[in-house]
Inverse folding.
């Protein structure tokens, strides 16, 4: 039964993607944003009981909304559009089926140390033809969030996360840990809805800024 439900979830996601494919611009790179956790998997639980799955969904929705308002919107899709649980394997399968050009997984962090804070950006710890582009994108995101949003730097790191491991051979992929929900200041940051719009703006500016580079590197 679980496998059936997983297959149904993936089928629904693919159907949603097909409905919007007709609107895409062929010259654009397709960006898949992996909205972390969802459903019964709440992810990290922060101060005032805020949940990672909700914060990440709010960020993703802000990105979509702001993107639609751009003169030349980017070709962006999500792994989930509501509070549903999508398995890690289905997230990476979806990216391959829709032939994504970029895979960006969004998360928030948590620590037993309440003083832990800052942004981390991860790339796969295995080499592929897309490692250079993934590292470039990781450093660009890391720099943008540090300079424009004031988040402390925890660096660009290498990891064997499943969503990175299963995508790096197909396209550049990165995983963003956008602050610690266990930190008082960063938790309060996400309790202000206006900050989701600010973060979405920086996110989109970072992608737009580097689009010419992507076009040269990923033709």
């Amino acid at each position: 039964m679980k496998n059936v439900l997983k297959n149904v979830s993936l089928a629904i996601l693919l159907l949603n993607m097909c409905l919007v494919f007709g609107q895409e611009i062929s010259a654009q790179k397709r960006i898949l944003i992996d909205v972390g956790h969802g459903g019964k998997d709440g992810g990290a639980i922060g101060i005032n009981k805020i949940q990672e799955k909700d914060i990440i969904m709010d960020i993703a929705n802000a990105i979509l909304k702001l993107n639609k308002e751009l003169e030349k919107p980017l070709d962006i899709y999500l792994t989930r559009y509501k509070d549903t649980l999508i398995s890690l394997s289905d997230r990476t399968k979806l990216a391959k089926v829709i032939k994504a050009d970029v895979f960006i997984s969004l998360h928030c962090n948590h620590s037993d140390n309440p003083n832990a804070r800052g942004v981390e950006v991860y790339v796969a710890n295995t080499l592929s033809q897309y490692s250079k582009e993934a590292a470039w994108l990781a450093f660009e995101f890391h720099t943008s969030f540090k300079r424009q949003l004031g988040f402390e730097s925890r660096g660009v790191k290498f990891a064997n996360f499943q969503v990175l491991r299963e995508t790096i051979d197909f396209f550049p992929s990165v995983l963003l840990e956008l602050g610690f929900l266990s930190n008082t200041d960063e938790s309060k940051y996400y309790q202000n809805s206006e900050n989701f719009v600010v973060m979405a703006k920086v996110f989109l500016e970072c992608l737009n800024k580097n689009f010419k580079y992507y076009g040269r590197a990923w033709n």
